[in-house]
Design a protein that fits this description.
Layout (H helix, E strand, L loop, with lengths): L1 E4 L2 E4 H31 L5 H32 L10
Antiparallel strand pairs: 1-2
Length: 89
């Protein structure tokens, strides 16, 4: 199954990788500082070892979440393919 995006044809695997990479990078860059600030504010006894554990696990959680998210999009596009645009006359 190929999807036309702009002037380029993408396979389902290429589209999945594009979605996954965007989700992984965006979520990781967003959530690391947010979790750091929440950890500082919520717990006065801030432990560096706890933050380092979170820092190690967050990319793994984001990778799994991105795979689920990308897979759901590809499944949805496979079950209900996008319609072809009608040519304007």
């Amino acid at each position: 199954m190929n999807f036309k995006i702009g002037n380029k044809q993408l396979s389902a695997g290429e589209l999945f990788r594009l979605i996954w990479r965007g989700w992984f990078v965006g979520a990781t860059v967003t959530f690391i500082p947010i979790f750091f600030v929440i950890d500082l504010v919520a717990r006065p006894g801030f432990s560096l070892s706890q933050y380092l554990l979170l820092l190690a696990l967050l990319p793994i959680m984001n990778a799994i979440n991105g795979a689920i998210f990308g897979g759901q999009i590809i499944l949805g596009l496979f079950l209900v393919p996008p319609r072809k645009a009608k040519k304007a006359e």
